[in-house]
Structure formats: structure tokens, C-alpha cells
């Protein structure tokens, strides 16, 4: 029996108020999921709305409190994050009642199903339990029920947008992942190869979304099997358990084909090569089915995320500090819509919006701009040869490509397991995608002019500490978007923070871009050089870069806590 609650409804339809109105229908749909799991477990399903008759008084109070909290998630007026907030309350509630959480009427299966469905309706990011949130290990007879119900929810395509958080609190249900992390590396390389063709996708920030979809699909496919009991999901065709490596391969393939249909031949060839290394049998076929289902669901969830919206027209300002198109070609600003794209993990693009930049008439701005004027000029006599090389190095390739290649090298050199690899890449690329969204939210909120504009207009005396130069030219062409915060600072800091969380802050690394390699004593050293390079190339001030650095760190930390 295939149960797919809310089948046919995209994540953006119906509108929020209609989704809340239809909450009772959603409860019935989720009850069907629980009934299916209960029947397979040979027991009678209980209603979601009241505790069992044989529960103790304490259990009844506990379950009623949980139900009230779940009702709140369904019925509360939409706000900046009511679902995530209430889910956090549920977790805190359980920690206060560990004895009941281990009891025979434990309702985590209900919560699991309900949180998954509510995240489907509201597209909120649910908190991932920390170590202190984990279940007591003595689960007794409920383990089978948990496995079955969790599997039912996953079979129904109800994984959380937080990519795995709904079942992370049941470690006893994990089954060993099979396969090497190299398969994840190969799919990451496949996407970079696709992006190397200018016909596949113009030079935009869209690839950050592509990387996030690819890695989230692989991660979800693997986690769906290793944490939810694949033998239940495919009890007939895969009694020995679905293959997580096959699931990851199929999920990656299906995402890339959906994003780049013109590249299908090469992607099909990659899938054939990857799957040929996996032993045949029902487990392999079951894994393929899981991967296909996850990819299909994920693509559907992101189909109306705002990434394909028409960028709104930008109207340049004429006051000191206002962004305006930059020389020599004065192109219109780009990605004016990207700050409104729905984030993957953040609640909104403005969640970590930096504080407003210092006034261009002040001393802090004068100091920062004069630094760029000296070091970032095309004819600078103060910039060192190594600084020039670094400026060109970090501008040679998209910074998200560079950091994904760093992750490829780390996973390969460490011979990472499949589970480790999907987690490294998922955290990295979800952080990069959401940092990009947050960065553009801030850029078009503050609309700060670029250094080339500020230096050339310095003679207008908006700041007495800045001497203008109408002929000043940066070392490298200026990107057509506002200056604050800086992209390289934000993205590189997000990547460095993420990778340091896995490999340690002082992990020696070599970073290669367009055939040139630079070495660093740690991830932070690489990230710092990345944003300094934007001063040396004449693109950004240190004010831009430090705001970006803070933003990237905040986003990466948030993603790590929720994944």
C-alpha cells in the first residue's frame, strides 16, 4: 500500500492560510499512515487526538500536552517560525519526562509523522535533536513499532526539509550503510563537469542551488535507509535491506537529470558506471527505489522556491553610498531576486542579516576605502606579487566550485564512509546555498556602492578623508551587484566553518583553482585569504568582507545544528 499524504500538492500551494484551514484533513491522512504501520505491527492504531484508555494519569497528561503542542503547529496563525518553535517545545517537553518517553505509550512515532507532515505544509525547518535529546536506549517492545512507523512515514515521502532530522533521535534503528564515500565525490565532480559547459547554465549563482539539491538528495536517500529500517520499507522485494549506495546514486542521477535534461546522456552513463560496482539483488533495486523517491520529492518541494522568478528591476540611487552600475560597461545589477529565494535550512534570507554598514561619511569607511584604493588598483605599487596572485586565484573559478573540490579531496584522502561523505557535502552545500540567499538579501537591503564608484566620486567631498581619483581602475573587473556584504567572505567562511567542524580547524589543505594550487595551514587561513583577495583585486572593502565573514559563519553554524 502506497500512502502519500497531500499527494499532488506542491510546497507553495495551497497558500499558508489554506494549509491551516485543511489541518483536520492532514490529521486524517497522517492517521492513515499510522494505521498502516500499526496493522503491519499486529496492533490496533490509536487516534492522534486522545491518549489510550490504559495509560496512567501521568502518561495521559504527557500525551495530551504533546497533542496540544502538535495542534498548535497545525492551527496557529503563520508566523516567522511557529512550527520550528513548537517542535523545539516538544523536544524540551520530552527531556523533562524521560521516564514517560521510555514508556509503552510513547508517542514519538506520532510526533515523527506529525512533524514531517507539518514541515511539508509549512516548509519550516525543524530542529534536529542534540545528543541530550536522544531516546533512552531501553526501548523494550516499542522498537519494532518505531521502526515500522518511521519506515511508513519515509515510504510515504514525508522526510523533513531539514534532511533527516525527524529520525535522528533513534540511534538504535540505524543499519549500516554500504559503500564508499567516493561515489558521492564522483557525483559532485559530475556536477562540476556539467557546470563547466557554458551552455548548461550561464555564469550565475544558480549552481549553489544545484549543489544543495544534489547533496541533499544523496544525504536524504542514505539517511532514509540507515535510520528508518529499509527492510520494512521494501519488505517484499528487499528482505535483506535496501542498499544505501544504490539509493545515493539514483538520487544524484535523478536530481541532475531534472536540473540539466540536456546532459542526460552523460549522467546516465555515470549512473550505469556507479551502479555496476554494486552487487545485484533485491537490496540494490530497493535502494534504487528509495533514491528515486527522495529525488522526486525533493525536486517537487523546491519547484516553486523563487529561484526562477523574474528578477525585479533595480533603480540606482544618486546619493553618496547608493549603489549604481560600475565601469567600464555599467551593466545592470544581477540576482536582484535571489534574496527572496526560499532557503533550504534557514527560516528566511534575512534571518542573519548583518547590521547596517558604517556611513560613507565616517572615519571607518574612509580607512577601509583608502585601503582598497591603494592595494586594489590595477597599477598599485603597494600590492605584493603574492597578493596579486591570490587575487587572481580566488577570482578564477566560482568560489563554491573551489570549496566543493576541497571537500572532494578531504573525503577522498580520508577514505570516508558513505555516511560521512553525504553529511560533509550536504552540510557544505546547504550552507553555501543558504549563505548565497542571505548574502543577496543583505546586498539589496543596503545597496552599498562598489569601491570603484566611491573612489571615482571621492572628489565630490562626501568624505573629507577620501581623495577622489576619476581614473581609478581596480585590478579585476567589478561584479555587477552591491558591495555589502562581500560574497567571497561570506561563502568562504561558511565553507571553512563547515569543514573545520568535520576535520578540525588546523587541518592542512591544498586548494586548487584553474590548475593553480595554494596551500594553507587550516580552513580559516584559506577563507581569510579569499576575502582579503577581494581587497587586493579592488572589489570590496574590509567592511564588506567582515560582514560577509560573520554571515557565513552564522549560517554554517545554524545548518550544522539542524543537520
TrEMBL record:
CDD domains: PAP2_haloperoxidase (cd03398). Residues 1-23, 303-326 are annotated as: Disordered. Coiled coil: none annotated. InterPro entries: PAP2/HPO, PAP2/HPO_sf, V-haloperoxidase. Residues 431-552 form the Phosphatidic acid phosphatase type 2/haloperoxidase domain. It holds the Pfam family PAP2. This is PAP2 superfamily protein. It comes from Streptomyces mirabilis.
Amino acid at each position: 500500500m502506497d500512502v502519500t499524504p497531500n499527494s499532488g500538492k506542491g510546497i507553495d500551494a495551497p497558500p499558508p492560510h489554506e494549509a491551516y484551514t485543511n489541518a483536520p484533513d492532514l490529521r486524517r491522512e497522517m492517521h492513515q499512515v499510522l494505521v498502516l504501520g500499526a496493522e503491519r505491527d499486529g496492533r490496533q492504531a490509536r487516534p492522534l487526538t486522545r491518549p489510550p484508555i490504559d495509560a496512567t494519569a501521568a502518561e495521559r497528561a504527557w500525551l495530551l500536552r504533546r497533542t496540544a503542542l502538535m495542534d498548535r503547529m497545525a492551527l496557529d496563525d503563520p508566523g516567522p517560525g511557529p512550527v520550528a518553535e513548537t517542535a523545539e517545545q516538544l523536544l524540551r517537553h520530552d527531556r523533562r519526562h524521560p521516564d514517560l518517553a521510555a514508556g509503552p505509550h510513547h508517542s514519538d512515532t506520532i510526533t515523527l509523522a506529525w512533524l514531517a507532515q507539518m514541515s511539508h505544509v509549512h516548509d519550516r525547518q525543524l530542529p534536529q535533536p542534540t545528543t541530550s535529546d536522544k531516546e533512552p536506549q531501553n526501548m523494550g517492545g516499542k522498537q519494532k513499532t518505531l521502526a515500522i512507523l518511521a519506515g511508513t512515514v519515509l515510504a510515504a515521502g514525508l522526510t523533513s526539509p531539514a534532511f533527516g532530522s525527524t529520525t535522528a533521535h533513534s540511534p538504535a534503528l540505524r543499519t549500516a550503510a554500504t559503500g564508499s564515500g567516493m561515489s558521492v565525490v564522483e557525483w559532485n565532480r559530475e556536477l562540476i563537469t556539467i557546470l563547466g559547459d557554458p551552455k548548461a547554465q550561464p555564469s550565475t549563482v544558480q549552481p549553489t542551488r544545484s549543489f544543495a539539491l544534489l547533496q541533499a538528495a544523496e544525504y536524504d536517500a542514505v539517511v532514509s535507509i540507515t535510520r528508518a529500517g529499509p527492510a520494512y520499507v521494501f519488505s517484499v522485494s528487499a528482505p535483506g535491506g535496501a542498499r544505501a549506495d544504490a539509493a545515493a546514486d539514483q538520487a544524484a542521477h535523478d536530481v541532475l537529470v531534472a536540473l540539466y535534461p540536456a546532459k542526460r546522456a552523460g549522467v546516465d552513463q555515470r549512473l550505469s558506471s556507479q551502479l555496476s560496482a554494486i552487487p545485484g539483488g533485491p537490496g540494490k533495486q530497493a535502494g534504487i527505489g528509495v533514491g528515486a523517491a527522495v529525488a522526486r520529492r525533493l525536486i517537487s518541494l523546491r519547484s516553486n522556491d523563487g529561484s526562477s522568478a523574474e528578477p525585479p528591476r533595480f533603480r540606482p540611487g544618486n546619493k553618496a553610498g547608493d549603489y549604481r552600475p560600475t565601469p567600464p560597461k555599467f551593466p545592470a545589477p544581477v540576482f536582484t531576486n535571489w534574496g527572496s529565494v526560499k532557503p533550504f535550512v534557514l527560516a528566511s534570507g534575512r534571518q542573519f542579516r548583518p547590521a547596517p554598514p558604517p556611513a560613507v561619511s565616517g572615519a571607518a569607511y574612509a580607512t577601509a576605502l583608502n585601503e582598497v584604493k591603494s592595494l586594489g588598483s590595477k597599477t598599485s605599487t603597494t600590492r605584493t606579487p603574492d597578493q596579486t596572485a591570490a587575487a587572481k586565484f580566488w577570482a578564477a573559478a566560482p568560489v563554491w566550485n573551489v570549496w566543493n573540490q576541497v571537500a572532494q579531496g578531504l573525503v577522498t584522502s580520508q577514505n570516508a564512509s558513505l555516511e560521512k561523505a553525504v553529511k560533509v557535502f550536504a552540510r557544505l552545500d546547504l550552507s553555501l546555498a543558504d549563505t548565497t540567499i542571505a548574502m543577496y538579501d543583505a546586498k539589496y537591503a543596503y545597496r552599498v556602492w562598489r569601491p570603484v564608484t566611491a573612489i571615482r566620486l571621492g572628489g565630490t567631498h562626501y568624505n573629507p578623508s577620501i581623495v577622489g581619483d576619476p581614473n581609478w581602475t581596480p585590478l579585476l573587473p567589478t561584479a555587477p551587484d552591491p558591495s555589502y556584504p562581500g560574497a567571497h567572505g561570506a561563502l568562504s567562511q561558511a565553507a571553512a566553518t563547515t569543514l573545520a567542524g568535520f576535520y578540525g580547524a588546523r587541518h592542512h589543505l591544498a586548494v586548487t583553482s584553474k590548475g593553480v594550487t595554494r596551500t594553507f595551514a587550516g580552513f580559516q587561513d584559506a577563507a581569510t585569504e579569499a576575502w582579503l583577495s577581494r581587497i587586493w583585486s579592488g572589489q570590496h572593502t574590509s567592511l564588506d568582507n567582515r560582514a560577509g565573514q560573520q554571515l557565513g559563519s552564522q549560517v554554517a553554524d545554524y545548518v550544522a545544528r539542524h543537520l
